[in-house]
Amino acid sequence: MEQNVDVIIVGAGSAGLAALREVRKRTDNFLLINDGPYGTTCARVGCMPSKALIEAANAFARRNDFPAFGISGGESLAVDIPAVLRRVRNLRDKFVGGVLKATEDLGERNLPGRARLLDGQTVEVDGRRFRAKRIVLAPGSRPVVPEAWCALGDGILTTDNLFDQTDLPGRMAVIGLGAIGVEMAQALARLGITINAFDLSPRLAGLSDEEVNENLVKLLGREFAIHTGVGAELRRVEGGIEVAAGTAQVVVDRVLVAMGRRPNIDGLGLESLGIPLDKRGQPQVNPSTLQVADLPIFLAGDANGQAALLHEAADEGHIAGINAVAESIHCFKRRTPLAVVFSDPEVAAVGKRLAELDPETVIFGKVSFARHGRARTAEKNKGVLHIYADKKSGRLLGAEMCVPAAEHMAHLLALAIERGLKVMDLLRMPFYHPVYEEGLRSALRELAGQLPGAGESDLASCGAYAVEALD
User: Fold this and answer.
1) Which residues in 326-383 belong to E strands, given as ranges?
2) Distance CA 34, CA 113 (A)
3) Which of 27, 190, 193, 289 could form a disulfide with 61 if both were Cys (CB 3.0 to 4.6 A apart)?
């Protein structure tokens, strides 16, 4: 016997909860199906516990700057890793507890279990069938771990279980230097763990700008060993796990695998929909509507393989939730791309990355923070920022950076790009002194030098002092 509802939502992660919020505004006749733990990837194993670990690591690492500030005694400080991990878990549990409130009043409309599509409107869970007018699929993702490495048992960690550890060993490898790998490798190194990090790609943290990447590699290489360009192989040996990649060969106690996340679409029954699937098993999804082909199905969040970021998942859940109950499908304009990596210095990319641009039509504004006044006062004077603008119009197109306070400058640039602003428009805004954003202004001034000049009565033409303390 089938139960009929207006909407079925598969998955109670960030995208699923955003969809639920919109669906509940318009109907009470819905069903939420969730396989696995509740609490969202972000709150349980991603954004929030990772930042708790990073903040502890950065606080301990700050002792290395004490001599420059005239402070002594930093060498006598010690870190208690079990205590650090207890704080991470305590914070994580509070974050998760807040998320769980979103589903605690659903009663029978909240069904734990693994969903499988039987057709475009029917879902089966543990032998029970449910039929809906429309379906939102948001089953999330899981860490990628090569099958052969699973034989290493508890020698392998992912961010799904890293924060459950009560202690960590003295030697670790990190495989994968995307956003998560870079963040965790640096944090663990700053907590006193000897880290060797590996990635097949020579570019870290999703950067495509070679000069920015080279700067990041150099800075991170001061804190832990980086091996790129060759795939890593693992095997159990006496005394630990051997990690070999080209000429690099190290023995560690445990390995953190940070090779990305795989959409949870296997076993979901997408093949029953009668539409083409790509080599990853993904259907075609319209990013403006989240609709799968022309079916009454919407695929949102990590599961669609487009952008595994919380703000994108929230947007996609919002879009899918509205379209799941709307009389007609609505198209939404998506936000300007924005990604931040919480390393030190922070890494950020906003708008179009360099690899997406035609170098013949673009001008570049660059600034090094090595002699940036505010950064020098804080012992954070490191990193570079590159901004890209259209050669003819001066319209801002994108940026890549590894600099202090990148998260803030990236948001400012995202707003400017979203509004279609030009280099001179941004130079007309006030820049207080001394702030990190003055470095952004320096890059904008370099761009302005490649464009037609502003009029004498236009403050966008106000130049630099060329004096370190004043710029």
Assistant:
1) 338-341, 346-351, 362-368
2) 6
3) 190
Question: pLDDT of 374-428, one tens digit each?
Answer: 999 999 999 999 999 999 999 999 999 999 999 999 999 999 999 999 999 999 9
Q: What is the mean pLDDT of residues 283-304?
A: 97
Structural contact between residues 186 and 224, judged by C-beta atoms closer than 8 angstroms: yes
Question: Are the C-beta atoms of residues 9 and 108 closer than 8 Å to each other?
Answer: no
CATH 3.30.390.30 fits 338-461, yes or no: yes
Q: What's the mean per-residue pLDDT of the chain?
A: 96
Residues spanned by CATH 3.50.50.60 within the chain?
2-143+262-325, 147-260
Q: Which CATH architecture has domain 2-143+262-325?
A: 3-Layer(bba) Sandwich (3.50)
Which residues, other chains included, contact 105 with Cβ-Cβ below 8 Å and sequence gap of 6+?
none
pLDDT in tens, 295-312: 999 999 999 988 889 999
pLDDT in tens, 188-218: 999 999 999 999 999 999 999 999 999 999 9
What span, in angstroms and rounded, lies between the C-alpha atoms of 106 and 112?
A: 12
pLDDT at 470: 87
Instruction: Confirm if 281 and 97 have CB atoms less than 8 A apart.
Output: no
CB contact burial 95-108 (16+ within 10 A = b; e otherwise): bbeebeebbeeeee
Question: CA dist 315 to 45, 184, 333, Å?
Answer: 20, 27, 10
Instruction: Give the C-alpha separation, 324 to 330, whole Å.
Output: 10
Residues 337 and 351: beta-carbon distance below 8 Å: yes
Per-residue confidence (pLDDT) for residue 266, from 0 to 100: 94
DSSP secondary structure, 40-96, as one string: -HHHHHSHHHHHHHHHHHHHHHGGGGGGGGT---GGG----HHHHHHHHHHHHHHHH
Q: Running DSSP on this structure, what letter comes out for residue 291?
A: B
